[in-house]
Amino acid sequence: MVGCATVARQISSPPELDLGQPPVAGWTTEKLVGILAQRDQQFQSLRSLASVHYRGPEGNQGFQEAVLVQRPDKARLETLTLLGAILIVTVNADQIAGFHPREGLYLRGKSSKENLFRYTRIPLELHEMTRLLIGLPPVKNSADWQITGSSLYRELSGQGKEIVVFDLAREVPIRWYRLGSDGSPELSAAFENFSSTPVGLFPSKITLEAAAQKRSLEIVYQEPEVNVEIAPSLFVQEKPASAQEVPIEALGR
After folding, report:
1. Rounded to whole angstroms, what are the CA distances from 179 to 20, 22, 135, 157, 201?
2. Among residues 91, 93, 62, which one has the least CA distance to residue 79?
3. Which residues contact 227 (CB under 8 A, 6 or more apart)?
């Protein structure tokens, strides 16, 4: 997903968080937390083609991607052209590896947030990224959520807040924000174009923004298959015999 697109509209900033705002009638913290918990159980794996668009300091790009996700810590991303894959990235709890078939280059390193960012430009931990790619806000199940209006919010160890906004009619989360200590959005995501699947409503369009880094990433899935069985071997790449191995640090930051 490195380098991705001509994208997307920006996600609007969250409205002023009025801690005194009453919850929408009939809704409680427990009900909204229950929606998060239920969806956390519903969506475990994903296989889909996607149109990906990226905008950032490196420029704007758009491409097709084959996406495989197995929560909590496995993903495979293949950047495609009419002539086949030009980049295959696999990541699991132990290792991230990238193979560039055209150049005959193979890069690998420890599975870490930094190395994941080198290839995906997604500034999240692996377990957060797999949640995002499968249409879930990258948040933890936690006992400290509080309700305001149609949203949940929680303090982040005195260093900001996290907010999840819900569409109450469909009972799905539609926005996620991670705010800095000054209240400005550091990361945000929008979940849109929901369609029915055997396990529940799935957002076929996901937009992630990193405001401070001036990056945005839009993913539009095409006929996503959820909770499919995916062979564990697809999330591991050994170095092809003909490839030259290069340190993953060659990708920069």
Report:
1. 19, 21, 20, 12, 27
2. 62
3. 42, 43, 44, 45, 198, 199
Distance between CA 175 and CA 186 in Å, rounded?
Answer: 14
Positive/negative CA dihedral, 151, 40, 69, 197: negative
pTM metric for this prediction? 0.91
pLDDT of residue 3 exceeding 70:
no
**Domains of the chain by start residue, with CATH:** 29-242 (2.50.20.10)
Straight-line distance from the first to the last Cα atom of the chain, in angstroms, rounded to the nearest whole number? 15
Q: What six digits make up the tokens of 53?
A: 């668009």
Report whether pLDDT(7) > 50.
no
- How far apart CA 204 and CA 50 sit, in angstroms, is 9
CB 178 within 8 A of CB 185: yes
Residues in the chain: 253
243 compared with 183, residue with greater pLDDT: 243
Give me the sign of the Cα torsion angle 206, 124, 9, 162. positive
